[in-house]
Write a structure and sequence with these properties.
- By secondary structure, this protein is α/β, with parallel strands linked by helices.
- The protein contains 6 helices and 10 strands.
- A 5-stranded mixed β-sheet has the order 3-2-1-9-10, covered by helices on one side.
- Helix 2 links the parallel strand 2 and strand 3.
- Helix 2 runs parallel beside helix 4.
- The radius of gyration is 17 Å and the shape is globular.
Length: 251
């Protein structure tokens, strides 16, 4: 047996694709994965109403949901809250609908790739600061000798596509090398609204990068609404099945 995770991202409640969400919820009800993992952008503008809708949907799934904050999940209109307590609304959602999973096959380790402000504009792309990275590396170091597959989850891809041009995630190269060196088998993410699955290297260390698209109306690069199923076994084994919403269900 393996631990089955449904990986979704960028649901963007406020501009969500209700048909896509319904299709994913139906698949979850039929297949009962061990958990759903959502790698950020739970809302569009971090409004209280959007968070309420997100909480209602995640609670309705009936399986553990592991949540991560994205750049859209910090207040856009309340700058005081954004700069003093940017994750307050996200924490409230996580308290209502979030969970942790216990598995003999896989362990999920979070990495924060969002910041309240950046030395560039817009503030949407990734920024991995040293303190959050150090916390994630420390968690991985504590797992040395643990045979479970170790997956880091963050909102932003740590590296740009195919190393073409600059890296849109500040600190991403250093973070990738540090995580791979500390024993991470893969990092899963969202943000770009386009699925990908590739092995990349930095500073002599390789690691798998797995990204998924959106379940919102904010489609990009011709990628349709989609999600993926991760079948995880010990020893770094991750089988990825990409599912496009609207395609026939798997046999």
């Amino acid at each position: 047996m393996a631990t089955r995770l449904f990986h979704i991202s960028d649901v963007h409640f406020g501009v969500e694709d209700r048909a896509a969400l319904s299709a994913v919820a139906d698949a979850i009800e039929q297949e009962r994965p061990d958990a759903v993992v959502c790698t950020g952008d739970l809302t569009q503008r971090a409004k209280h109403s959007e968070y309420a809708d997100a909480a209602k949907w995640f609670r309705s799934l009936g399986v553990p949901t592991v949540l991560q904050a994205g750049n859209h999940d910090m207040p856009y209109y309340n700058l005081w809250e954004r700069f003093t307590d940017p994750y307050r609304r996200y924490r409230a959602l996580n308290d209502q609908a979030g969970a942790e999973i216990e598995s003999d096959d896989v362990v999920l380790v979070p990495l924060v790739s969002t910041v309240r402000a950046q030395p560039r504009f817009p503030w949407s792309d990734g920024f991995v600061r040293k303190p959050p990275l150090a916390r994630t590396v420390a968690q991985l170091e504590q797992l040395k000798g643990d045979r479970r597959t170790k997956i880091v989850m963050c909102h932003h891809p740590l590296l740009g596509p195919e190393d073409a041009g600059g890296n849109p995630t500040i600190g991403g190269d250093e973070a990738f090398a540090a995580l791979a060196s500390a024993g991470a088998d893969a990092v899963i993410s969202g943000h770009v609204h386009t699925p990908f699955d590739e092995v990349r290297s930095r500073s002599g260390h390789s690691m798998r990068m797995i990204g998924i698209g959106t379940l919102s109306t904010r489609l990009r690069h011709g990628a349709p609404p989609c999600y993926q199923v991760l079948e995880c076994k010990p020893g770094g084994s991750i089988a990825v099945e990409l599912r496009v919403v609207g395609d026939p269900p798997p046999a």
